[in-house]
Amino acid sequence: MRVYILQRLLSIIPVMLVVAIVVFFLIHLTPGDPASIILGPDALPEDIKALRTELGLDLPLYQQFFSWFSGIFVGDLGDSLYLDMPVLTAFTSHLGPTLSLAILAQIISIVIAIPFGIIAATKRGTAVDQFFMVFALLGISIPSFLLGLLLILLFAVELHWLPAAGYQPLSAGLWNHLKFLIMPAVTLGAIQAALIARMTRSSMLDILSMNYIKTAHAKGLKERVIIYKHAFRNALIPILTVVGQAFGTLVAGAVVTEAVFNIPGIGQLIVNAIQRRDYVLIQGTVLLIAGTYVFINLIVDLLYGVVDPRVRLNKK
Q1: H/E run at residue 100
Q2: Torsion, CA 48, CA 53, CA 59, CA 63, rounded to 10
Q3: What DSSP state is assigned to residue 293?
Q4: Which residues sit opposite 86 in a β-bridge?
Q5: Residues of the chain where predicted confidence (pLDDT) is lower than 50
Q6: CA torsion angle for 207, 212, 213, 218 (degrees, to 10)?
Q7: What is the pLDDT of residue 305?
Q8: Phi, psi for residue 86 in degrees, rounded to 5
Q9: Model-level pTM?
Q10: Integer Cα distance of 284 and 195 in angstroms
């Protein structure tokens, strides 16, 4: 297991290298000049040229890349061109809202999706199954920004139950924190709930058709014991895969939802950085998000061994 973990950690290096190269050169090939944006439209050409020299933007791209990438190995992702602070500091200062949103959205999606998927599998072909699958199809089909706007219209504008937008940290109180996150969490969690529900149903159907499940029925075991102790546990590996990928997607893909609900998270940080052509901040943020996504997948792989001992034996 230790060798497996070490191999997975080493495999992160080439992934991060590819991400760094692609992101760096794509950003620098897009139109726009950070120096012009920082100084404003009335800046003189010589001032813009001087600032470009100061920021190192006049160097060849390969020199800029190696200068930036070499700092990664010592934990230096550079300084934001616009915010005048280290990229890591800017990232961590915006990470809290995104993590809170992603965790709450993940909890909502799991609480809704797994029971729905199990019930749909046990009621295969019935009206109950069809209802849950229609729900899953709607969850996948409705764009997150549209669902967010509909929730704002209903719960904020019409019913006045929840605030339309904004964010309060956990230090302001648990309810004050949650009431600003409920609608965006439902917006994000609905799509993931649909995917997890479909995977749960599919995985449970495969397990329920196994011979040992039929044997358990023949022995007279209670239906609840068969479903939750024997079938669900053996169906967990593909479900864990989807849940892990979903959480990585929630952390990395909350840009639109954070913009709709004006949440000062990583999504808002990236959008602002793109608008300002803050190359260093974009590069560092995307690299950190990619690293987070890979790390989450590693945790999911390790959980396989906890859920199914056969996986642990195969890794040895």
Answers
A1: helix 87-122
A2: -130
A3: H
A4: 79
A5: none
A6: 170
A7: 64
A8: -60, 145
A9: 0.82
A10: 30
